[in-house]
Write a structure and sequence with these properties.
The chain is mainly alpha-helical. The protein is built from 14 helices and no strands.
Length: 256
């Protein structure tokens, strides 16, 4: 599994797991569940059908397996089954209610995941509501501020969106969505110079919607800015709002 952890080589990791599963004849012979880990690798490869098959096996033996529920929740999101995704996240929250304080952050990011699903469903009030619940547990977390700010933008509360996105950018300037929606909020408020500055930054971070919004309104990024971004790229922010952890026992993930 070193290939996956060190350099993200999912092909070699998958080959290793297939051999482990073949030799085990369904008997768990290691400290980690190879079906669970294989499901994660299938998820990374966007092979959602075999991933779901492996997760079904894991959940048959342990219906409250947080790792399996989290992966399945994100598969459902990728397939645009946002309500189904939220059902898995809500189940995770219920399981965590009896856990110690150490998993508070886990609950916070699950709440954020639910909120983001509601944003994708265009249920913006619920998006903001769940992000607020998350921020009670992890104040000033950029990822969650971005979710709440997105909800505020959907509700037409542009000043509140700007406030949240400004805080998010202050903590993590690579949040492309934060630059984009702050720029769009400035645009709605007829503050064009700030709108164009933010949309230009979002465009450099790879937000295609920002590039489109700039057409006929703002000057595109200069060649020098594009070249600087190419030479010194910012961290890419995934559109799927994920968090995961690697555990010492090999049950390597919980997506939040």
């Amino acid at each position: 599994m070193a290939e996956l952890e060190n350099n993200g080589d999912t092909t070699k990791a998958l080959d290793y797991l297939n051999k482990v599963i073949s030799r085990s004849n369904g008997i768990k012979i290691t400290t980690f569940d190879p079906y669970l880990t294989r499901a994660w690798i299938y998820f990374l490869q966007k092979q959602y059908s075999p991933a779901t098959t492996d997760l079904k096996r894991v959940l048959k033996n342990d219906s409250n397996n947080l790792h399996a529920l989290s992966i399945r929740g994100y598969i459902k999101r990728q397939l645009k089954d946002y309500n189904g995704s939220n059902a898995d996240f809500q189940r995770m929250l219920k399981c965590l209610q009896s856990k110690p304080f150490s998993v508070v952050a886990d609950s916070a990011f699950i709440l954020n995941g639910i909120g983001w699903n509601y944003y994708l469903l265009k249920e913006y009030e619920l998006c903001a509501e769940y992000a607020c619940k998350s921020l009670l547990l992890v104040p000033d977390e950029a990822y969650v501020l971005d979710t709440r700010g997105s909800g505020y933008y959907g509700l037409g509360e542009y000043e509140r969106c700007i406030d949240d996105m400004t805080k998010a950018i202050g903590s993590d300037p690579d949040q492309g969505n934060s630059w984009y929606l702050r720029g769009m909020s400035y645009l709605k408020l007829n503050i064009q110079d700030r709108a164009c500055a933010d949309l230009s930054k979002a465009s450099l971070l790879g937000v295609a919607e920002a590039t489109e919004a700039m057409k006929g309104l703002c000057q595109p990024p200069t060649k020098e800015e594009v070249e600087k971004q190419r030479q010194f790229p910012n961290k890419k922010i995934p559109k799927v709002k994920n968090r995961f952890r690697i555990f010492p026992n090999g049950n390597m993930l919980i997506i939040l």
